[in-house]
Amino acid sequence: MLAVSLMLILVKAFWPLTSASDVCRIVNWRFPAEHKALKGHVIANVSVQTSSACETACHQEPNCVSCNFNREELTCQLSDSSEQTHPENMADAPGWTYKAFEDYCIGNTCGWGTTCQVGYGNLEGYRCKCCFDGAQCTEGNFAAHFPHGSHYDMLRYNAQVIEIDSSFTASAWFKTSMAPSSSIQTIFSVNTQYLDGAFFMRLGSGTIRVRVKNIAIDVDSNDLRNGNWHHFAFTWTRATGDWKIFLNGSESFQGTALAPGYALLSGYFVLGQDQDTYNGGYDPKQGFRGILFGVNMWSRVLSKHEIARIASFSSSQVEGDLVKWSDFYPRDAGSQGGIEINCPAKCT
User: Fold this and answer.
1) What sequence ranges are listed for the domain Pentraxin (PTX) (predicted)?
2) Residues 240 and 306 in one domain
3) This model's pTM is above 0.70
4) Which of 182, 154, 123 is nearest to 269 (CA)?
């Protein structure tokens, strides 16, 4: 197919370290194919009045490479692929018109866990998009979807172990999907080689269980496994063992004398699974099913005002100094397991 037109538009989207080449998308349209459509790669459906409006919608979606337009139903389908990479998915489709960019991502490999987006920098340019924000591109802006609850579904802390010899705050966003065979959902667990249950948090039927130094506290709550987003925060003071649980930004439970003086050293940290042994003994019936976002730890007790801000999403990208959400991002396919990474995070 021959190139037939060039178009320059401004993509209205935030991008770290924004430059002119980051926000201006230049694409090379190829000849349209009448009564054809690309199947199996649709990322969005848009209602439009004309084929040119469908093309504009594709320009404005950074992951769009091609579009299908139905002139009778006034439907526009945006796809993240084209017949250049998936010719087997082209199909006869009466009433549809298929159109695609020249895909310059072909042959240009971005790093693992990144997405190649065509049309940035110059006519034959592209960019590699990762799940990080911030001036130094270090703040994790992704959500982790645990679809199965199997013992393969977990995220490991990339630093391998954590050292906690101070007071701390742990915080997490979660949204559950109930599994018929499971009444327990583990948000995270930390084990050492010498102690099972060094620190973990899990949900039960109307209960929350937190363990520190294998000492459990159980509190009654409304069932948080209801398919809605919830924010959880736990604070612990090392000197006295004072602790508090915050749910959705509000202080809900508190106590004292929970393992005072304890130091959690060389702890193995995983999300979505309870460890019965050090990095092992995973039970799928206690695995998490749903979406996790923003799991962080701080080496101090955060104030109730700080926790309320984090729980309001106004500080959703604030990461801990002890454990950072970005350090759970899988570094390769093997560390991702069966987990789906949604980038950017969408808390809906």
Assistant:
1) 140-345
2) yes
3) no
4) 154
